[in-house]
Specification:
Elements: H1 3-27, H2 31-48, H3 58-80, H4 100-114, H5 118-128, H6 133-140, H7 144-162
Helix pairs in contact: 1-2, 1-3, 2-3, 3-5, 3-6, 5-7, 6-7
Protein name: RNA polymerase sigma factor
Keywords: Sigma factor, Transcription, Transcription regulation
Family: Belongs to the sigma-70 factor family. ECF subfamily.
């Protein structure tokens, strides 16, 4: 890779690294696993960057690579080792930024989403990131109609999980 291409990659990664952190939070249960997944996604992005053609936004391409990497590693890890429970991870949030109710609701939502399947998690993540169905379908490689149908089913599933 040329220095210019390397510089472009680093700049884009720095500008969009929150995408990777959010994917890591969704697919991991502890800080070490989060860091490992972040590193693996970064490596996969680096390897794939020379093939990035710019036909979509960098962030859309980044979502796709990050989610595919996370799903692949998640499926491999499910076969071998169980990670630490989500409840044991403590988030440091200033009391004046969030009220306890909002924090508890967020925790319950994450717990519910973690019960979903791999693709369902990815779809919910993109939906909560305010991506439209066109972007979701492009990122996940499914049709827009399929994305809408799946999202409606997921909403029902989450309602059942959250309100038994």
């Amino acid at each position: 890779m040329t220095k210019e291409l390397e510089h472009q990659f680093v700049t884009e990664l720095e500008n969009n690294q929150n995408i990777v952190h959010k994917v890591c939070t969704l697919y991991t249960n502890n800080r070490d696993a989060h860091n490992d997944l972040f590193q693996e996604i970064t490596i996969q992005l680096w390897k794939a960057y020379p093939k990035f053609r710019g036909e979509s936004k960098f962030s859309t391409w980044m979502y796709r690579v990050a989610l595919n990497t996370a799903i692949t590693l998640y499926r491999k890890s499910k076969r071998s080792i169980r990670t630490q429970d989500y409840d044991s991870v403590i988030f440091k949030i200033k009391a004046d930024e969030y009220d306890a109710t909002e924090e508890e609701q967020l925790k319950l939502m994450y717990q519910a989403v973690k019960q979903l399947g791999d693709i369902e998690k990815a779809l919910v993540f993109l939906y909560l990131e305010d991506k439209n169905y066109s972007e979701i379908s492009e990122t996940l490689g499914i049709t827009e109609v399929n994305a809408r149908v799946k999202m409606n089913r997921i909403k029902k599933k989450l309602r059942t999980i959250l309100n038994p």
